[in-house]
Amino acid sequence: MKSPNVTKNSVISRVIQEQMEQGGFIRKAFELGLALKKQYGEDKVFDLSLGNPILEPPDEFRKELQRLVNNPFPGMHRYMVNAGYPETRAEIAKYLAEETGLPFTASEIVMCVGAGGGLTLALKALLNRGDEVIVFAPYFPEYLLYIAAQWGISRVVTTDSNFIPDLKALEKAITRRTKVVIINSPNNPTGAVYSKDTLRSIGQVIQAKESRFGTKIFIVSDEPYRKLVYDGKECLYAFGFHPRTIMVTSHSKDLSLPGERIGYVAVNPECNRGGELGVAIAFCNRAAGFVNAPALMQRVVSKLQWTCVDVSEYKRKRDFLYKELTGMGYSIVKPDGAFYMFPKAPVANDLEFTMELTSNFVLTVPGVAFGTPGYFRIAYCVEDRVIEGSLDGFRKTAEKYGLC
Amino acid sequence: MKSPNVTKNSVISRVIQEQMEQGGFIRKAFELGLALKKQYGEDKVFDLSLGNPILEPPDEFRKELQRLVNNPFPGMHRYMVNAGYPETRAEIAKYLAEETGLPFTASEIVMCVGAGGGLTLALKALLNRGDEVIVFAPYFPEYLLYIAAQWGISRVVTTDSNFIPDLKALEKAITRRTKVVIINSPNNPTGAVYSKDTLRSIGQVIQAKESRFGTKIFIVSDEPYRKLVYDGKECLYAFGFHPRTIMVTSHSKDLSLPGERIGYVAVNPECNRGGELGVAIAFCNRAAGFVNAPALMQRVVSKLQWTCVDVSEYKRKRDFLYKELTGMGYSIVKPDGAFYMFPKAPVANDLEFTMELTSNFVLTVPGVAFGTPGYFRIAYCVEDRVIEGSLDGFRKTAEKYGLC
User: Fold this and answer.
1) Are B79 and A259 in contact (CB under 8 A)?
2) Which of A133, A142, A318, B123 has the fewest C-beta atoms lying within 10 Å of its C-beta?
3) Residue A274, pLDDT score
4) What are the residue ranges in chain B where pLDDT is below 70?
5) Domain coordinates of chain B in residue numbers?
6) Reduced to 3 states, what is the DSSP secondary structure of residue B377?
7) Displacement of CA B267 from its chain's centroid (Å)
8) What is the DSSP pairing of strand B218-222 with strand A109-112?
9) Cβ distance B16 to A125 under 8 Å?
């Protein structure tokens, strides 16, 4: 489907045109949703399509931000080194050292413009043109954009019925050109949290291939949802399972600051030989146009590494919606983390199904957007009234497809 | 010169390794400066090497930031559309419409992560692999990184003895593959401000080549120093001289907020056919990993478009230093804007000269870093005591090279 805004003989880069067109069906769904909101009113449309968390930042954040802004000091908005303030990086290193037992120092930490920025830095620092990057489907669609931006090649590997990586498929997919395997636990869009066994196995498969090919393969672990886990589940650090691991995260979800674009990249101390990787990633902050992560937010989050929004709120929303939807006949793997669920669509054509949901005033995203047709994503990081209001539409659609 | 942190058999991307090595001499000078500061004390070393402005943000900025932070409202740190808050973009469009007389609307404005982010967006939206981008030497060195990041080819065109583009050289340099000409007035590193005649001629040369080749060529006008002009000089908008013009700017200099990474891209309404270019540039905020410009700063700068730091402070510093240095025999084109000057080195080897200055406790940047050997850059956006303190070192070095 052609994006409506790109015209013939366009001046726009062909790669960008193609990428925009690939997202065309999401745009169409999005525009249909907008049209519905306009026609019937915002409160009549139940938007579960966006991972824009409704929880406000914790009080500690507000206080720290006010403390800084009400006590300004010279230079607080100036440039700093590309890697970010040494004090903030030292504080994060201290936090990670406590969490992992690994000898993190500020040299392993680069402050970045959200996790999107961090993924861009990690891939830019590592990839040569044509290097392969493995992603597991369902995947966060931006991964493909970030890989393409560095002229890498995406290789998609499937997961099992619980959205856990298929290890045999992973083994097959790794070639001499594989440079990076991206993992994402807790996962967007499924909410899956990888177990110790899964992480260990992924590490083992990668290391066996490294030995065979004489190559070095990095895990880039995208962990913005790390603190959002439920029912006492543990979200393990990937660092322990592979020496060449780069963690990318942000405070978009744990502090509910997605608009502020503040996150960090952490390099496994075991693979930061002479600081080389940290220096290269910081350099990429320059080369990719970021320069540095926003100064004020770097200072604010410095002391908030142990802080998090009230996760029980998301758990409550998850439990309610999961119970209601499974009660209607929807088939859902109960998510252990993040604030998404990824139910099966009751028909093979997930696009048709989500359009039907939309016509019943419920906005979701078809699985095809995540490389996994036949499913759809619900983001339940919304007000209770939106979740409650969506139930009617879910029920009507379930009835139409004979679920209940 | 090999960067000390990149080791043999490095895992780092080859392009990034090369780019880091190219900056090796600047790094060496930087490290020598650091060593001097460590050995003799910060106050004994006079650092004129960085464009990190000393002026604090205006009171209006502090007030607006405090007003927002002390009156928080739900959602103020959430995601917004990739292009940025519609209100902020409308305010900027209103400002630009008043300034230029052109019919700017929010559709022509994309909020970005500083001018570095904005240049990245504009180039990413426009360039196909192998497209050529013209830059005028002396140039801001990041241009080459940003062009390389989009796999474009940099074509360097010389300027005359006043650092004004050589139009014949420009004419020769434009080929069928030329997609962008980057201009930067007021200029880093020279402080040159392009006149109406210069801008008109650049537009005419480009348009003649477009007609001849049947191509479309964009001016990307990097204007973070637009408000920093002296002696009643006028900094004209490039929009008026070429329909395919994209302006990129930030509030790093006019509001002294370089660490906060807040700027915008403005597309000439004449070339934003059906909003196509604005949509593509906003999409690139996603694809390049920025997602959006920092939320809080977008809100803060919304009402500060008519605000600027006290430019007379920079003028005073310029006048003092220009008088002192020319008095010592240095040959300098008096800068009309920005906060740099670009004197001739009294020997051909500018690297040797700046190392000599460094050994006399004055840090500057050799012209070779800007593609123009035989010169050096002074950033005078520093405290008066640094400027005054540097005079001894400038004098000693002048004496050594027989200037006085």
Assistant:
1) yes
2) A142
3) 83
4) 1-8, 24-27
5) 14-57+309-400, 59-302
6) strand
7) 18
8) unpaired
9) yes
Q: With a CB-CB cutoff of 8 Å, which residues 119-158 of chain B face chain A?
A: 119-121, 124-129, 142, 145-146, 148-151
A73-302 — its CATH code?
Answer: 3.40.640.10
Q: Which CATH architecture has domain B59-302?
A: 3-Layer(aba) Sandwich (3.40)
The Cα B79–Cα B283 span in angstroms is 14
Domains B14-57+309-400 and B59-302 share a fold: no
**What does chain A come to in residues?**
404
Beta strands B132-136 and B178-183 are: parallel
Distance between CA atoms of B94 and B104, rounded to whole angstroms? 7
- Contacts with B, A 33-92, CB within 8 Å: 50, 52-53, 56-57, 62, 65-66, 69-70, 72, 74, 76-80
- What six digits make up the tokens of B369? 């870093």
The 10s digit of each residue's pLDDT in A318-374 is 999 999 999 999 999 999 999 999 999 999 999 999 999 999 999 999 999 999 999
- CATH architecture, range A14-57+309-400: Alpha-Beta Complex (3.90)
ipTM of the complex: 0.96
Do B116 and A78 make contact, defined as CB atoms within 8 angstroms? no
Q: Kindly report, residue by residue over B358-373, the tens digit of the pLDDT.
A: 999 999 999 999 999 9
| pLDDT attached to residue B1 | 34
A291: distance to nearest CA of chain B, Å?
7
pLDDT value at residue A8: 57
pTM given for the model: 0.96
**pLDDT at position A22, please?**
85
List Cβ<8 Å contacts ≥24 apart for B387-392: B387/B46, B387/B48, B387/B317, B387/B320, B387/B321, B389/B43, B389/B46, B389/B361, B390/B46, B390/B48, B390/B361, B390/B362, B391/B324, B392/B360, B392/B361
**What pLDDT, on a 0 to 100 scale, did the predictor assign at position B109?**
98
Instruction: Give the one of A19, A50, A260 whose C-beta lies nearest to B295's C-beta.
Output: A260
* Nearest residue, CB atoms, B276 vs list A5, A124, A274: A5
Which run of H or of E encompasses A245? strand A245-250
**Nearest-by-Cβ selection for B11 from A6, A117, A216:** A216
